[in-house]
């Protein structure tokens, strides 16, 4: 199993994400508007707790568990969320939390959706199809019957190559590389990340994602017992429902 970790860039994560990469208040409001009576939540890839914090500000009655397997990120999420949420170390492929949730959501976490033109491609932080299938099955196993699996939709331009000033003289840069597989509805997406100050590299990393598209997305989700319900009107989330 290979899965992307954020140890090397955790120090700069918040500054990057909150400087135009995501609008957390807006994304929390969108998620909050569809959850309604679903209160017991699991955030996979909780990171530093940025979205969970905004959700709890909107509704403190949410029972949020956040899971991540990067210790440096978990330290930050625990400091941010305190006793308002439960934060545990683990990964979605092997997690066994021995409880079920009304909704499991991923926001820039181990699974998500990328809008490519008019199409939606499913991405996985596990760059292996068999592991991705196991991950989806494990997610479904942690949902109540009729529970939701909600994936953040990322616009293609978010992952465009380029540089961004994130403050304190630090420049964040990313560059992607695509590797399509012949006669298969999947490809690999690799992104190089770096943080520089006055030309000197402070930290860098490379992450590899598996991308699924076309009929393969529906077939893979269906095999895990997940059925597409809707995309939110603001095109921020894709909602799947666990079917019996």
Automatic annotation (TrEMBL):
GO molecular function, one term: methyltransferase activity
Keywords from the UniProt entry: Methyltransferase, Transferase
Segments forming domain Methyltransferase: 42-109
Biological process according to GO: methylation
SUPFAM superfamilies per UniProt: S-adenosyl-L-methionine-dependent methyltransferases (SSF53335)
InterPro entries (alphabetical): Methyltransf_25, SAM-dependent_MTases_sf
Highest taxon in the source lineage: Bacteria
Protein name per the record: Class I SAM-dependent methyltransferase
